[in-house]
Amino acid sequence: MKKDEKSSFLSFYNRFGILFILIGLIVICAIASPVFLSSANIVNLLSQIAVVTIISCGITLLIIAGQTDLSGGSIVALTGCVCVGTFKDLAEGGMGDFPAGIIAVLAAMLIGMIVNGLSGLIIAKFRAPAFIVTLAMMQAGRGACYLYTGGLPIYGIGNISRLGQGRIGGILPISVIIMTGVIIAAYIVLNKMRLGRHLYAVGGNEDAAKASGVNVGMTLIKAFLIHGAMIGLAGVLFMTRLNSGQPAEASGLEFDAITAAIIGGASLAGGVGTIPGTIVGSVIIGIISNILTLKSVQSYYQMVITGFIIVLAVILDIKTKGKKE
């Protein structure tokens, strides 16, 4: 393939390729399982991808800025356990479900913002690699979760479980509504706010961004804080869906989120990515998991397949977006 033809193909793929992949995958899954396109399965699929989609929206902001976060799963476990534990304590103490639920959710979001804000501060202040900082935070977050729960699950969490399991009108999952709100918020940040322009600038060319007057450090910290709030919401939905606080769960969610962002067009090199693309990537990941479950593929095989998808996503990123124009 000639250089111009290759460039045209990559340009076309970067714009529309992910949609063709999604459509092709839907067709294949519909043929493989007649249950796949049923309304019940579609609603269930949307509910299943809510947590990963919320995380992937936040991590897209970081990837665009040339950063990453490996602590997502651990912080989901920590914030989720803090949420259900706080709600249980307040409810048992006589506080009504609504105020107790508000406080519990806010506590989870605050914890997420504190932890991720600390990661952002260290990265911005000391120019430390995000990979190392967030890897350390992954360990610290999981340890903090075990300390909070005493290493034991939290059961009897009460009505807050409706956030992860409840449905409006018996049809639309509450988790999908929350996911939609996060998607809209992330889209506004990237496309309608100055912070979004700064994120693209920092990820595209940090030196040029500095020369243009962008406060790189503060931009990164803000991105990590927003991501932390989204991680907190993801933790709430994850644990309330399980109807318990499980300190050992949520491992590997960060990799699913990163994979979704990369499949959706975000570049690990920074400066490239969109929220709509990330959503499509998250849906693709969810569809693959869903069809494997419908076809009764063992979870161990699903882990292997997911691992290969991550590798393919990285190769795809290098081939299509590795060199900035």
What does this structure look like?
The protein has 325 residues and is mainly α. Helices cover 76% and strands 1% of the residues. The chain contains 13 helices and two strands, in the order H-H-H-H-H-H-E-E-H-H-H-H-H-H-H. It has a two-stranded antiparallel ribbon with strand order 1-2. Helix 3 runs antiparallel to helix 4 (97-126) and helix 8 packs across helix 10 (216-242). The longest helix has 30 residues, at 3-32. The mean pLDDT is 92.
What attributes characterize this protein structure?
325 residues, mainly alpha, 1% strand, two-stranded antiparallel sheet
- Uncertain segments are none
Taken as a percent bin, the fraction of beta residues is under 5%
Overall geometric form: globular
Q: Which assembly state applies to the chains in this document? A: single chain
Q: What order do the strands of the largest sheet run in, or round the barrel if closed?
A: 1-2
First and last CA, distance: 19 Å
**If you compute it from the alpha carbons, what radius of gyration comes out, rounded to the nearest whole angstrom?**
20 Å
* Overall average pLDDT: 92
The tally of beta strands, per DSSP, is 2
Query: What is the string of helix and strand elements?
Result: HHHHHHEEHHHHHHH
Structural class: mainly alpha
Q: What's the helix count?
A: 13
Helical fraction:
over 70%
Please summarize the sheet with the most strands: 2 strands, antiparallel
